[in-house]
Amino acid sequence: MSQRENDEGERDFRGVLGDTSDYVDLTLGAIEMVLPNGHYILEEDYRVSGEVWRVHKGDADPYPSNPHAHCVGGAKRFVGLTLHLGTAELYDGRKALGRFLSPHQFDRLIEMIRPKFPSITLPLPTA
Global pTM? Predict the structure, then answer.
């Protein structure tokens, strides 16, 4: 797990938080979203450890992708969202939000997931 200091001088933790044979919990720091036009969505919500994403090896619901990530910790407005591991789009249930995890956070998340799922090509193909 890596640490860095944010603008407020607090420690920001990133990396694998939990790892079992069924799932992996990861954190990237505070979530950053991007609209389809490439503009970033800035919201005032600072958290030392950021959001925690859980990726199951075999999720009963393969939507929005198989596998996909669940936000299981962090800011309330993000907990419960799912992340398509091919497009980086965020979903609320089956509803696409038209918002995406920022490219650098998505790439970091994919890099942390790859060792756990060596038989799956990540990011997932989208075509």
Answer: 0.67
